[in-house]
Amino acid sequence: MSRRDLPGLLAAVVVASPVLIGAVYSTLAAVGLVGVGAQGFTLERVIDTLTSSETWSGVAWTFATAGAATAVAVAAAFVLAVRVRDRRFGQVMAMLPMAVPHVAAALAALLMFGQSGLLSRLTYALGLTTAPADFQPLVYDRAGVSLVLTFVWKELPYLTLTAMAVLLVDSRELEEVARTLGATARQTFWRVTWPQLWRGTAPAVIAAFAFLVGQYEMPALLAPSNPTALSILIYERAVDPNLLRRGEAHVLGLLALSISGLLVVAHQWWRARAEPGP
Fold this sequence. Notes:
The chain is mainly α and 278 residues long. 72% of the residues lie in helices and 0% in strands.
């Protein structure tokens, strides 16, 4: 490491220090050495939390909803980026949801998809249901339909912007060459545009997935209580009146941090693969 690298390394340490300090504190709190409810060293909370079916059902549900939303948002972003890359108005419209706060998006989804919301009242007005309450539950449902749709709506601008940047930098000339050589529009997309898009946006896709895994505001308004999203599970343990359960919140927080860390490693690995060699 050269002296020129030192400022960047120090800046990285400063940025990471709150996470590192929090991880150390949470580790000590998880084994009962510090924090509220600490009663001396014990692995009981760690074992109980990591062997609980509630923990892993929450992790699985969180991964399923975040994964489904990311997959749909990626597919939509690729199509949208191809369609609007040469249309300024379309680009502006595609970016608008980025300005909406996540909690506002979740509230809008609640008002739209709830059993007393806009869609339920519309189906009742059209005679499709006998009462607004007969509308298919899309909020607090086990499948997390409204949550996934809201995730998609919020992540779509970010992924579309990334995809358009990739297209403008890497794909234009290659597409023109493919069309000159006789490839159809469909062949050009699947053999030229798609590989370029996936290679260039994969790090952003991993980052979006990691963000959704740790999301709190939208699950708090739209997710069911069973299974419980990982972020909600951490919050519930942190505010539980039983002080002995506070340690479980630290265990769950460390679990979430480990998951995020693995996703960061995956992000960096893919980024290194995507970058051209010397």
